[in-house]
């Protein structure tokens, strides 16, 4: 073979080009699987409380992947992976999307005939579904800090959120639970059997749960030197 080797025999063989073409096609199939399966797992994980589907990096990469596909379809740009695979198959002297077992079956999954507008409609609809998944299954922040946006949606102030982030020991448990609920975190407490028996006995005796008293405002102090009317 003499493909750009300046008169010398090219060290890359036909089989090497074919292997690289199959590897590119497998990578192409992996990207498609990531986009399609990613949305399904996000929707399923949202219902089953899987925290990993809220990973910010995973969700951004997933959205960027389908966004790139939609941009290609609207602009009529051929995928670079497809161009690379075609070039490698030409160098290998193999028919495009035909040949050995791997290329044939992966090609069957990725390449099929349809009008261009069908692809544009399908890709765009799928992208809208991915965007909608950000609404019903909110991803976590890319940074470790919770931020003001979570504070607002959880109904607490940003100052309280910063106190929680800093590990302040004296915070209101109810407000902390609001933040955890907004982030999709659930807490479960296991009550020992002996405690359950004690609580049941107290309840049978008519003992009511302790209700904290409301603090009353102190009476205003008299101003020094003010005479009584």
Automatic annotation (TrEMBL):
Q: Where are the transmembrane segments?
A: 17-44, 56-77, 117-137
Determine if Transmembrane is one of this entry's keywords. yes
Top-level lineage group: Bacteria
Region described as Disordered: spans on this chain: 210-229
UniProt keywords (A-Z) are:
Membrane, Transmembrane, Transmembrane helix
InterPro entries from the UniProt entry = DUF2784, Lambda_DNA-bd_dom_sf
Molecular function GO terms recorded? DNA binding
Q: Does the keyword Transport apply?
A: no
- Protein name as it appears in the record: DUF2784 domain-containing protein
Record organism: Massilia psychrophila
């Amino acid at each position: 073979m003499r493909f750009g080797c300046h008169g010398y025999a090219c060290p890359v063989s036909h089989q090497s080009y074919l292997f690289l073409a199959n590897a590119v096609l497998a990578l192409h199939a992996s990207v498609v699987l990531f986009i399609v399966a990613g949305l399904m797992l996000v929707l399923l994980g949202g219902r089953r409380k899987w925290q990993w589907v809220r990973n910010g990096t995973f969700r951004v990469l997933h959205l960027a992947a389908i966004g790139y596909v939609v941009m290609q379809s609207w602009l009529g740009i051929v995928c670079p992976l497809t161009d690379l695979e075609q070039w490698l198959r030409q160098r290998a002297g193999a028919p495009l999307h035909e040949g050995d077992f791997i290329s044939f079956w992966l090609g069957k999954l990725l390449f099929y005939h349809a009008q261009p507008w069908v692809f544009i409609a399908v890709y765009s609809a799928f992208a809208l579904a991915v965007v909608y998944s950000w609404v019903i299954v909110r991803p976590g922040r890319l940074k470790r800090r919770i931020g003001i946006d979570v504070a607002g949606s959880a109904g607490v102030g940003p100052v309280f959120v910063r106190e929680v982030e800093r590990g302040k020991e004296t915070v209101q448990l109810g407000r902390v639970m609001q933040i955890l609920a907004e982030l999709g975190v659930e807490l479960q407490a296991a009550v020992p059997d002996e405690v359950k028996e004690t609580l049941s006995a107290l309840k049978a005796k008519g003992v009511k749960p302790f209700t904290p008293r409301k603090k009353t405002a102190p009476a205003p102090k008299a101003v020094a030197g003010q005479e009584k009317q």
